[in-house]
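Whiteboard transcription, Tuesday session. T.W. wrote the structure tokens on the left side:
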């Protein structure tokens, strides 16, 4: 597992949930990041402006910071966990 360094962010997540890849199911609105368990591309929609944004070749153990709305079906990475504020 990769190292987790929240020092780069002023926001520390207080909740986690397994992610189901879906083009319609939304993540909690207070999502602050995604933990990637198995390497692959990650396609997301953001709560702000932005849809079908693709992160290529995301390595296992990586945390992608952001306010994500959904993890799309096109995502190849697996074992993704949503980090959010309770």
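and on the right, the sequence the group agreed on:
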């Amino acid at each position: 597992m990769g190292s987790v360094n929240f020092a780069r962010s002023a926001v520390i997540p207080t909740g986690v949930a397994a992610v189901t890849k879906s083009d319609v199911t939304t993540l909690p609105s207070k999502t602050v990041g995604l933990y990637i368990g198995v390497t692959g591309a990650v396609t997301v929609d953001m709560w702000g402006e932005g849809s079908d944004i693709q992160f290529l070749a995301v390595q296992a153990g990586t945390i992608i910071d952001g306010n994500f709305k959904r993890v799309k079906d096109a995502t190849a990475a697996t074992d993704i966990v949503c980090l959010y504020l309770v």
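Someone added at the bottom: DSSP finds no helices and seven strands in the chain.
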